[in-house]
Task: structure prediction
Amino acid sequence: RIPETTIRRLPAYLRALTLIGQDRITSEALGQLSGYSSEQVRKDLAYFGAFGTRGVGYDAQLLAQEIRRILQLDHGVRAVVVGAGRLGTALVRHTGETSGDVVIAGVVDIDPAVIGRQVDHLRVEPLDALESIIRERNIGMGIITVPPQGAQAVCDRLVQAGVKAILNFAPRALVVNNPEVFVQQIDLTLEMQALAYFVGSTERT
Amino acid sequence: RIPETTIRRLPAYLRALTLIGQDRITSEALGQLSGYSSEQVRKDLAYFGAFGTRGVGYDAQLLAQEIRRILQLDHGVRAVVVGAGRLGTALVRHTGETSGDVVIAGVVDIDPAVIGRQVDHLRVEPLDALESIIRERNIGMGIITVPPQGAQAVCDRLVQAGVKAILNFAPRALVVNNPEVFVQQIDLTLEMQALAYFVGSTERT
Ligand SMILES: NC(=O)c1ccc[n+]([C@@H]2O[C@H](COP(=O)([O-])OP(=O)(O)OC[C@H]3O[C@@H](n4cnc5c(N)ncnc54)[C@H](O)[C@@H]3O)[C@@H](O)[C@H]2O)c1
Ligand SMILES: NC(=O)c1ccc[n+]([C@@H]2O[C@H](COP(=O)([O-])OP(=O)(O)OC[C@H]3O[C@@H](n4cnc5c(N)ncnc54)[C@H](O)[C@@H]3O)[C@@H](O)[C@H]2O)c1
Result:
């Protein structure tokens, strides 16, 4: 089995492979484009038997196909966004514009003033329709963009309705008792904090 | 010198340390909370001479202080958001609510209908004021949340005005010729793709 930490890096490699448009790529170039060291790249790819030729690198086409197969992207994954506020709407629009493998197949909200609004290719539906949307559109992923106090209840409904992965933006640690459901917490302020170091070390006097 | 990949993980350790509120923490617990393996945690912390006691772990207070010092967070880093649309506004509000070390000290836009709007503790100012905002408020970081076609020009102005770090959300690879400026590209669709694996492997039949 491929370790989870390797799986988490694969989309960045895939994104780099689709950007370069060349036939072959070295682990140095793949590392440079995706933000990892060339040793890390070689180690990760070796897990699924992808070995480059010294000095020539990997076949970019084959590698991308292999990563898509491992990430099961060829099935196409469908997601629902819960909370059609600023962040939720920005995400639906952005995902619609970027050609990715995750398709947002529904967006719901509790505010009557927001329900019925058109966002990209979707219309905002009421939260009450969440379970039937997940069942009828074969949705496997939930994306939570509601205020923190509503996040746990939304999470419970998503798990109950059978989603297998949750991307949570609300600043609230979610409790999930089902080991088959994977929850990923996102906090963009962490990204800012990581960058703070690069500001500090050359701080203008 | 501490490797950049280690620096990038420190905010997640710091976030975990502030969440737990205990006196001591083991590398296993720190890894569990921050999403890294306990070996990775031990290796990272050893770079700056933090060694835990076998079975007892690390002093959580001292460790948090040490990480803040390394990340230069005690100086407090100030950022400006360019593009007060849905994503930019959501970020300003969220950063204002979450106690973090990066302070958003300004937000600018080009749309007259948006300029003057109140967002959290700030009022949206015109893009033309960008350079004087950066100089007068000692801003070291720029956050780009404009549409892709405007991103490179905004980036050039930020670099020219002296910022040292840029967080870019626009789906456009930025070109920066100044080696002292660090650019971090953010793509939330990559997070969705990484999660797709966890949906696929237990896909409902
Ligand atoms: N993790 C990050 O880095 C990050 C960045 C920005 C915002 N956020 C967070 O994302 C969340 C949304 O931010 P925003 O700026 O879009 O807020 P917003 O107020 O613009 O949008 C919230 C939306 O959720 C809806 N809602 C509330 N409770 C609901 C429920 N139980 N079910 C369905 N819909 C519900 C509201 O009607 C509203 O439309 C907040 O929790 C915020 O802190 C996180
Ligand atoms: N990286 C990600 O994961 C992610 C997620 C969501 C959105 N996005 C991207 O973020 C960007 C913003 O998305 P949004 O939904 O907030 O869009 P939006 O249209 O709601 O907001 C864009 C704002 O930028 C302003 N603007 C345009 N050109 C400008 C310039 N040159 N200088 C200053 N302000 C300018 C507009 O007036 C508007 O207020 C888009 O490029 C989108 O693709 C990225």
Observations:
- The pocket of nicotinamide-adenine-dinucleotide (ligand 1) is lined by residues A 82-88, 108-111, 114, 127, 145-148, 150, 154, 169-171, 186-189; B 90-91, 93-94, 97 (CB under 6 Å).
